[in-house]
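Notes from the 1:1 (GR / supervisor)

We went over the backlog. Supervisor wanted to see one worked example end to end before approving the batch request, so GR pasted a single chain during the call. The sequence is below; no edits were made to it. Supervisor asked that the structure be written out right there so they could see what the output format looks like.
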Amino acid sequence: MTATSGIGLSAELTRAFSAAVETRNVRFIKVVIQNESLVSVASIDVVGSLEEDLALLDSYLSDKDPCYVLTRLDDPSSEWLLISYVPDGAKVRDKMLYASTRNSLTKSLGSTVFTDSLFATSKADVTPEAYAAHKRHQTAPQPMSAREQEMADIRAAEREAAGNVYEGSRARQNHLGDGKVGYKWSSEAEDAVKQLGRGEGSQVVILQIELSTETIVLHSNSEAQANTLSSLIPPSEPSFTLFAWPHSYPATKRDIIFIYSCPSASPIKYRMVYSSGALLIFKEAKAFLETTPSFLLAPKKLETSDPSELTEQYLMQELGFGNSTASNTLNSATQGSAFARPRGPARRR
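Structure output shown during the call:
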């Protein structure tokens, strides 16, 4: 595990990043470590696409000085890429300092916002061509052993056979447009998800699968707070929950969290159907939300077998909120308590 440096954010950087998230017209924010603090030293506005704007970074980077570059992505524009630029010519101390501070930076600004990261050791690593190679590497299939490849072929054959069985009035293409057979959505469920993206308050939409028709249906749609969320989720049946959570933590201010709940008491058939469809339903819900003017879907999907554990503290921990605050509080308490010398043994009479 990488040790943390203990360096925190400056108030100026927090304000600059929050403003960039709100306005959506900033492409890059250059961040450096100065006087034991993370500070913003440069900001570049959006001009063209991300690939085109990367060409503007060259004049802001040094061959010897490390930095971080907070980079807004194009699709969706609510997500960010963290570029950790540590050139080979940098001092060893600086290399270690920037490596140990990277996680603190993303957690303090809101780890749900940063959906990708790029490590660069030269200016050539942050060119449009280098970024295109980075994306190709991410989408490339993972290497598999002969046994893994065999199992993948079997699963593909099973999916193809299942598709042939259900062709007809019940067959449909999902909203991602990739040609795979997916679930139908009731109009109530689809409208509820879209409305979640348009709203600004705290709202929870709970979805379930109607097995007889293979349709996503709306179980409930209501207002909820983080600490009352668990009481609304079915305690003995699987479900998919989309929770719009306004909060006071840095950068995002409002996240839409996808939660797959599968209580241990659920029937085995239900558990198999819901677990196999969780990823597809997450992608379809995200596609609905992307049609709304403004939304921020947390990239981390939560799973639970016990809805009662879904408290505000649990959400903070899973989404990376409050870690730096808790750490600072612990450090202050430790520094403020003096060492108490233990009492010696009693004298013999």
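Supervisor's comment: The first strand starts at residue 8 and ends at 9.
Batch request approved.
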